Amino acid sequence: MPRIFITAFEPYGGWNENSSWLALIEFTKQLGPNANVTTRLYPVDFDAVTQRLRTDLESDYDFAIHLGQAPGAASIRLESIGLNIGGRSEQRAEEFHRLVEDGPVAYRSALPLAEWSNLLRADGIPATVSYHAGSYLCNATLYLSHFFTEAMNLKTQSAFVHLPLDHSQTLKQDKELPAMSSEMASRALQLVVKQLTKQARVVAQELA
Fold first, then answer.
1. What is the pLDDT confidence band of residue 20, given thresholds at 50, 70 and 90?
2. Which fold has domain 4-207?
3. 72 near 19, Cβ under 8 Å?
4. Residue from 135, 169, 129 nearest 23 by CA
């Protein structure tokens, strides 16, 4: 059984909830007693996430799946590339900063995101592979997860998954926004974890 690490974010801005955390709560309800899954709730803060992510990854998990909220998204977005750049929406592009001064320009997830996308759609869950996780904390988490893994010579393979808003989050909005139930988002996460478990089993058999 692979050791899997899953993170989500706290509410931010004007949102009272974060769909990533709502989905993760729903996901944990379905975990069996033998599940080897560790979860974390991270604050929406660059410095705190950087420190906590590095500490958490020292446990050298097999896989790390980071979840985030994407208001306006109509499908699950499997983020492929994390860039070495960080900034807030209110900042000008020239005010953005490097996440790691001497780090690589970008990292690309080695996990089979296209296969996951096909798997989710076959199960009736809207999903797509995305090649740009933005320039804020979601992108930073994807990039830093790879950077820390490389810097500490760990085996962890990472991916970032953007989730649409939960239906409950759209009720008090002034405009219509696409949404997905936490139950569906949780089912997507269950399918991904099942695939990771299958992948780890195949690798183990090949090494035996």
1. very high
2. Aminopeptidase (3.40.630)
3. no
4. 169
